[in-house]
Amino acid sequence: AVSNTKRSSERNCIDLVLKLIQQDQVKLIHTSSGKEWLTPDQLDREIRDVLAANGGRLNVTEIPAEVGVAVEHCEARVELMRKKDSSLARVHGDLLSSQYLQGVAQEIEEGLEEAGCLSVSDLATRYNLPADFIRDSVLDIVS
Description:
This protein has 143 residues and is mainly alpha-helical. The protein has seven helices and five strands.
């Protein structure tokens, strides 16, 4: 009898949450496992955590497997995060943090000190970033 009551209670909770979602009373994102919901803010935090754990550069297509949420939710959240936070950039499907770009700029600076000059096309190949992005965004950070 206890398990039936618990099952009934869980079902009631699920029904209540679904009703709140349908009425736009609460915004929740269902996980791929089907066992949990995340708030948009929680998904943003998880995306940032995964980005940091990957050194500040992560292909957006890898995020769903990491956070357990469908790709369309991840894509939408990445775009909103990028619009709200200028420290994030999206280049050729990769999400880049300002920490990653500062690291690249520091490596370029060290390379310049050693070699005296570096070609933007070589840097673009080395970091797998477009030359114009290197020139416009990364080289601005190099002091």
